[in-house]
Design a protein that fits this description.
- By secondary structure, the chain is an alpha/beta fold.
- The protein is built from five helices and five strands; from the N terminus they run βααβαβαββα.
- It has a five-stranded mixed sheet with strand order 2-1-3-5-4, with helices on both faces.
- β4 and β5 form a beta hairpin.
- It starts with 7 loop residues before the first strand and ends with a helix.
């Protein structure tokens, strides 16, 4: 679910089995993406996975680093991450979103060979697109509370809003 000129293109690691079966991103009930997106102010209400197309009306989109579905992201190989990063970079060059937000700092590290990357804005760009590494919203990521995750997503939203206003 992408389009040209988005404000933020969110990028999951890869489709989980429920996402693959439903065709809707972040579809597993324990995934915190949709609640965090709302709590951080990106959407005026909490969307359901089957409402993902509505994101386009807010200048947002969703894609994945790796397209192969799996039960867990740790089933992916280093080669899949690297190839996914290469394909993602080509997609971003074509679509030119203002921000690429990778929901999983570990996936960002693996896909772009940035082993020391931390959550937050990155130095690397893809053309004019800035990159922000976010914590993974997976229910398996117990290191981040929903509230802390929403704060990090809000930092990205504020950066994207400031950038948008300065270009208007």
């Amino acid at each position: 679910m992408v389009a040209s000129g988005l404000s933020v293109l969110f990028c999951g690691i890869n489709p989980g089995l429920m996402t693959a079966a439903s065709g809707h991103h972040f579809a597993r009930p324990g995934n915190r993406f949709w609640p965090v997106l709302h709590l951080s102010g990106f959407t005026p209400r909490q969307l359901r996975p089957d409402e993902q197309e509505e994101l386009l009306t807010y200048g947002l989109g969703i894609t994945n680093v790796v397209e192969r579905p799996s039960a867990r992201a740790d089933e992916l190989t280093r080669e899949e991450y690297r190839e996914g990063g290469r394909l993602l970079a080509a997609r971003v060059e074509r679509l030119e979103p203002r921000w690429l937000a990778i929901a999983g700092v570990t996936a960002y590290r693996a896909a772009f060979d940035e082993p020391k990357a931390a959550v937050g804005p990155q130095e690397r760009t893809i053309g004019t697109t800035r990159i922000w590494a976010l914590p993974s919203p997976s229910g398996l990521n117990a290191h981040w509370s929903t509230a802390a995750m929403a704060e990090e997503f809000a930092r990205l939203r504020e950066a994207a809003d400031v950038e948008r206003r300065s270009q208007a």
